[in-house]
Design brief:
- It comes from Cryptosporangium phraense.
- Keywords: Lectin, Signal.
- InterPro entries: Ricin_B-like_lectins, Ricin_B_lectin.
- There is one protein chain.
- By secondary structure, the protein is mainly beta.
- The protein has one domain: Trefoil (Acidic Fibroblast Growth Factor, subunit A), CATH 2.80.10.50.
- Helix content is about 15%, strand content about 40%.
- It contains 1 helix and 12 strands, in the order H-E-E-E-E-E-E-E-E-E-E-E-E.
Length: about 150
């Protein structure tokens, strides 16, 4: 009886430890694409961690899985499995999902558009007509607004 109690306790402890490594929960099989309101281009990425916008093409590099976490959401790229990340210099990129606050984004809803504010920096996800994606102080402008479209995979 004592051995079974010890084994059960060890298994429960291992399950809790593993669950702490998984960054939030998402609806299985659901993704979003995000179209920039000002440019009409979609949020995109690649295997090297670059983030940019391109014409919307329906590809998996433009599909983002939204995970609810403490303080907001993470956006995980469907093609790479990397999470949208940022830093205090205003760079936006993807990295392996690590549960850090630089990968947590607070969603502000403006009708059908969204603004994404980084939890650590307080800056908002922004873009320009050259396809660059970065973060800047939140200003409510159309370059910081993203229209989501949902789909399943």
């Amino acid at each position: 009886m004592r051995i079974r109690t010890l084994v059960t306790g060890a298994l429960l402890g291992a399950a809790v430890a593993v669950s702490q490594l998984i960054p939030g929960t998402a609806l299985a099989g659901t993704f979003n694409t995000y179209t920039n309101l000002a440019t009409g281009f979609c949020l995109d990425s690649n295997g090297q961690g670059r983030v940019y916008t391109l014409g919307c093409n329906g590809g998996s590099f433009q599909k983002w899985i939204l995970h609810r976490v403490d303080g907001g959401y993470t956006l995980r790229n469907l093609a790479t499995g990397f999470c949208l990340d940022s830093n205090t210099e205003g760079r936006a990129y993807t990295l392996g999902c690590n549960g850090g606050n630089y990968q947590v984004w607070q969603r502000e809803v403006h009708g059908s558009q969204r603004t994404w504010r980084n939890l650590s920096t307080g800056f908002c996800l922004d873009s320009n007509t050259d396809g660059k994606v970065y973060t800047l102080g939140c200003n409510g402008g159309s370059y910081q607004r993203w229209t989501p479209a949902s789909g399943t995979y």
